[in-house]
Recover the amino acids of this structure.
């Protein structure tokens, strides 16, 4: 029947699809993003291949810049020189990074953010900040408020981000196993019959 069902090429958006929102299967896989960026980036931008990480909203490309030349007298001066070199890289590569990001966003349907690392200095450029809607009961709110009161975070939002990072650091192996299991489920779902 005309006008029913999904149009050709339709992919569901981010609302109300599956338990807890949309599923990973709604987006193209970004498993090959590191290889794609390694092949696409101009020679000489970074030392070696950049680190490429992806989630549902964003791909971050973080590369190591060539070491500074010459003697730098102290840590403060070295830090300032590193920050200046990163700022120069950001400005010099802006137009080309925008074009590469546009191509990657078309391919992977995610925003692209860039970053550079030099010595002890690392800076990410215009990363996506995604609001996460959640309902917390008083015991969870008290944990966040304690982090704010102790000066660990400036707000509940920042405290929640800090807590998520902490859990991620301590549960990395378990999270990797969970991601692999989810990928297997997505593969099985994709091979299943059309309804």
């Amino acid at each position: 029947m005309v006008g029913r069902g999904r149009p050709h090429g339709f992919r569901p958006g981010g609302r109300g699809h599956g338990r807890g929102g949309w599923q990973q299967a709604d987006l193209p896989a970004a498993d090959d993003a590191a290889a794609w960026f390694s092949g696409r980036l101009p020679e000489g931008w970074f030392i070696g291949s950049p680190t490429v990480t992806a989630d549902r909203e964003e791909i971050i490309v973080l590369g190591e810049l060539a070491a500074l030349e010459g003697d730098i007298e102290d840590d403060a001066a070295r830090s300032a020189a590193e920050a200046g070199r990163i700022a120069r890289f950001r400005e010099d590569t802006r137009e080309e990074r925008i074009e590469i990001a546009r191509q990657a966003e078309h391919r992977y349907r995610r925003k692209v953010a860039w970053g550079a690392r030099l010595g002890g200095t690392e800076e990410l450029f215009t990363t996506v900040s995604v609001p996460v809607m959640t309902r917390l009961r008083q015991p969870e709110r008290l944990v966040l408020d304690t982090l704010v009161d102790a000066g660990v975070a400036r707000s509940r939002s920042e405290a929640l981000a800090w807590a998520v990072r902490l859990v991620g650091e301590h549960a990395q192996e378990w999270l990797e196993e969970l991601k692999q299991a989810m990928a297997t489920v997505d593969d099985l779902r994709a091979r299943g019959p059309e309804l």
Q: What stands out?
A: The chain has six helices and four strands. The chain has two domains: 1-130, 131-195. The first helix runs from residue 33 to 40. Helices lie at 33-40, 75-92, 94-108, 138-149, 156-170, 172-191.
